[in-house]
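Quick one: structure tokens for this chain, please?
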Amino acid sequence: MPGDGGLGRPGDDTNNVHERRHTPQQVAAPRVRPTVQRGGGSAPTPEPSAIVRLMAQSAQEPHDVMTLFCWRNAKGRPLVKRSVAWLVAMAAGLSLLPGCLVSRERVGLRELGTARVGVGYDVHVDGGIALLSHNQGASILDVVDPARPRELGVIPTHDACFGVFHCGARAYVLDPSRGLLVVDVSDPARPAILGSCRSPGSWCELDAAGDHVYLANRDGGMDVVDVSNPTHPRLVGAGYGADPCEGICVLGDVAYLAMGGAGVHVIDILDPLVPRLIRVLTEPRPAVGIDASDGLLAVARHARGVSVYEVSDPRFPRFLAEVSSRHESLEVSVRGDMVAVADNMAGAMMLRIDASRHVVGVGQYETGAATHGVFTDGRVIYLADGGCGLVILAPRSGGPSG
């Protein structure tokens, strides 16, 4: 294994379709990323006249085209030939991939509350407290009542902040000039920076588990910081993988890396100092955002919407669906049966996954500004919004249970 804590570089021979981007900053600013659609399920069989109406209207209602793939006769065979549905989809401006189906249920989203604290970049919520990074730093907000979020305190930073993670009395913030900040937020009104660790490259996203923080480095792969001593966090592993890493999430002893054009790398981190590649999920477009929870993995993809996988056994991920978004899928968040998507200028998109692991509903909400980050607790969606900072949404009806 190479140096830097014994982290290897598997995948060095993988073709890198992204040009490496080196910036003078230690922490990378959020990158605007782009967007499309699929899934698994069944829908009620309509009358033939309904098929004709749908095909005639699909150019005006492109989302309804997906139901063409879901309609079945009594024997379970497609009621509409795939070639016909494909032509309708093309006329509606959609790009569909074969093999998976989405049964679309109209699920509206409504705004619960907002907090105007700058241009939002990323958000993470724990225990009724939201940590929001924005163009003026990072704010701590009380969101116990989602209809009335209020700012409790501000983490002192030198500039705009980007990736954030919050758990209990500890918060982690990516600061452009100082790298990773370890912050005591036991008193939200008076947050205190305990220590910092400078980046060896360009950190853009982070996740934490135990005494380690795992960071996505756009200059190459995953880095690991030991925070067992919060006043002296130290880099214990750097440069896992040669390709730019755009997003990262940790679920148990497994880390999932959104490696741009190199797809999704599934990594065994039972020993954080010696990560081991389990497998690579190939994506037709660069993977730019990622999250996993409750056996589900969601991947935001450059110009291809969102992919959803079942990862109860991370050695054998099972593809469930691909769902299009209206604009550019930048980030995803998964909790329970809800997948929330930051859809850039189209605001937020919500997917619902049923007990059979089928995508059964899609909702959309436009904020009127760019949405960069997203977090969901399974009931409520929190958006890091470019217009007012924090926007809080919930399903109008038929929403997922928490």
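The helical segments are 48-57, 82-91.
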